[in-house]
Amino acid sequence: MESWVFLVILSVLIHFLLNHILKSPVLPRKLPPGPLALPIIGNLRCLRKSSFEMKPILRDLHAKYGPIISLRIGPRPTIYIADRSVAHQALIQNGAVFADRPAALSGRKIVSSNQYNINSAGYGSTWRLLRRNLTWEILRAARVKSYSSARNWVLDILLGRLGGSGGASVLDRVMDHFQYAMFCLLVLMCFGHKLEETKMKEIEIVQRRLLLGLKGFETLNLWPSFTKILLKRRWNELLQLRKDQEGVLVPLVNSRREKLKAATEDEDFVVCYVDTLLGLELPEEGNRNLNMGEIVSLCSEFLNAGTDTTSTALQWIMANIVKHPEIQEKLYEEIKRVVAGNCISIVQEEHLHKISYLKAVILEGLRRHPPSHFGLTHAATEDVILEGFVVPKEGSVNFEVAEIGRDPKVWEDPMAFKPERFLVNDSEGGSKVTEFDLTGIKEIKMMPFGAGRRMCPGYSLAMLHLEFFVANLVWRFEWTAAQGDEIDLSEKQEIMTVFMKNPLKVRLSPRTHH
Ligand code: HEM
């Protein structure tokens, strides 16, 4: 073994041992049940596995120990919750206690500017300020409405890419177009610029390289003060990725700052996320403004949070629409009924809420195929008792979002795609969509956007994007499987998001009603 590898292993072991001795409480605490773990290393078979890869192991453990279990992955306990009422107890009934995030590992600190972004900030004043800025300044209804021309612009781009030639077309990777369209939309909402394709691609590449790169840097996190010296070259690579990202995003922020100075009289001016960040002051830090690094981290979070999540949801939904032609037909007929008499090429946003079946299809898509199977990791602000067990402050807590939405005790035939489960009869003999509460405040039946104080702030925007794009994609094209291709619903996880393992291939035939 090379001497430096031996040194790393030795130092990591010493580090964990010291951690273990120093941090072990004097009294034994009753953690949620789980398999025996080696004192320092933890549960060996879980080391280096993502939560997604651990799903079969977790299923066995839940069958043996119940809905709340603990594992030792490295030095700290990791708790998994697979039951909707335990999730409700934690996230809603004990919402404030379970609203923290674990301390970020060193690599993540670099890309989040020391946890100055919403998803990784601890539960406190900075998180509150950043989250309120996003929800009020960008995601409130009036502001979302102001982005409707951005949505139309992006729909145009997407339709052009899908059926530019006018005739029927076969597309091998329709997902690439969904991802690109969603990315354009978020870039415009973020920086206020309609950029050309080459520039969009440049941003997409630096963002993806950093996200993918972070995963490869996990070993650096084990003992940063030590690995920074020993694995200097790898740390420099991470720093370089971050520099590359700043090299692409900082000029966009600066050019927006310039535009902002001249924009006050422009009637068509639409506020973008960067505008709000440039004006933000941090009262707890002497009213200073955000620095450029923090602005870059927040923009990066904005782009990442809404791109892969929404485009993978769109792909899963369209895959099910192709797999079940009767669902597609019913949706098309309902859109036709709602827009009847209007000779339109685009289903407008004001039509969407009248198409009950559309909402049911989207909800079913998010239930059956939640883009993230574990949401983001939570932490407790203090040691807390849940279901008779201690959830320690230093532990991390994961909610098994996909298991909860596929619970056979709540959902009949849970693996089937049945939008009808979200419909009820209305007084006129038709059907309407149930008042389904995605926030889970009364009870949790599914939680694709999480629940409680850390619930996804972008959930209404994501629902609008999905409704708008699904309606228009079905309105403009008939979607069928590319010849001889079965729709395969196998899953794979990339970074945090669950994609189709075999991307959707389709034949698109333009509809003739226009
Ligand atoms: C279908 C699309 C989306 C899905 C499925 C989704 C899902 C989620 C989930 C599961 C979480 C973690 C919740 C938790 O910690 O319990 C989350 C957090 C978050 N999402 Fe989304 N999301 C989507 C779209 C968006 C969009 C469009 C935005 C913003 C433009 C956004 C911004 C965020 C942010 C900032 C957080 C961190 C919240 C916090 O820690 O306080 N998401 N999302």
Automatic annotation (TrEMBL):
Gene3D superfamilies: Cytochrome P450 (1.10.630.10). Keywords: Heme, Iron, Membrane, Metal-binding, Monooxygenase, Oxidoreductase, Transmembrane, Transmembrane helix. InterPro entries: Cyt_P450, Cyt_P450_CS, Cyt_P450_E_grp-I, Cyt_P450_sf, Plant_metabolite_P450s. It holds the Pfam family p450. SUPFAM superfamilies: Cytochrome P450. Belongs to the cytochrome P450 family. This is Cytochrome P450, E-class, group I. PROSITE patterns: CYTOCHROME_P450. The chain crosses the membrane at residues 6-22. One of its GO terms (molecular function) is oxidoreductase activity, acting on paired donors, with incorporation or reduction of molecular oxygen, NAD(P)H as one donor, and incorporation of one atom of oxygen. Heme binds at residue 456. It is found in: Membrane. Its main location: membrane. It comes from Parasponia andersonii (Sponia andersonii). GO terms for cellular component: membrane. The keyword Heme applies. The keyword Cytoplasm does not apply. It comes from the Eukaryota. It is a single-pass membrane protein. Its cofactor is heme.
